[in-house]
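Z., the sequence and structure:
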Amino acid sequence: MTGSALGQWLRHYPGHVLAGAVLVRAAVGGQGDLAIARAAHDHFDTGQCGVTDGAGSSARVGVRHGHRVVIVCGHRQLEPGKHEEAATRARAVQEGLPAGDPLTMKLKVYLADCDVLARKYDSVEKDLKVVLDSNADNDVKALARNTLGDYFRARGEGDKAFWEYIWVDVHYNQDREELSKALYYLAKLFADVRKDPLRAKECLERLCDEKQFGGLEYHKKALAEKTSAAGS
């Protein structure tokens, strides 16, 4: 279901419990649709939606949950020029989180990513190291390593960035989306920084695997680059 179709459906059935379930599944299930994330945000902002858990019980949700669902979609959904708005939204969620909430560390990564996009580098490395030293799960640590890689690339420190993406490939490779991003930039860095075209090609070939990465953003980029290289 597209974001626009989902939005229309929600306007017809604003209080439907299934709406909450669909939105949450769309947000956290890795569909990567920004329009769905926005529909989720707008719908939950009304405070009129019910969500159901696996046991079938339901609860009412309000404005903070709307922001929360959008945040949980992941920092990949940041639009160019929208990082300040995204950071404000993330901080609003952060203020309402109870102590020990597992979303805390993910939000810290999200905010660090906003800082990288805004070229506010002062605390990025320190904040991400806090996440990496925490007991956050491996998917969040993969997110942190990739964001640290982005930070070093933005600062022109390709060799440091290389090792962050290697961490994701070797240690934190459970999340296929984060792994696909790491492989994409490893291909670039093997070619441009390490001067190892063979390993660069190997990373790109792995990323072109339809079974493991089909449909993901960096899989599509890899296929396009492979096609372009073959035609040149």
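Residues 13-34, 44-77 have pLDDT under 50 and may be disordered. The longest helix spans residues 138-154.

Let me know what you think.
H.
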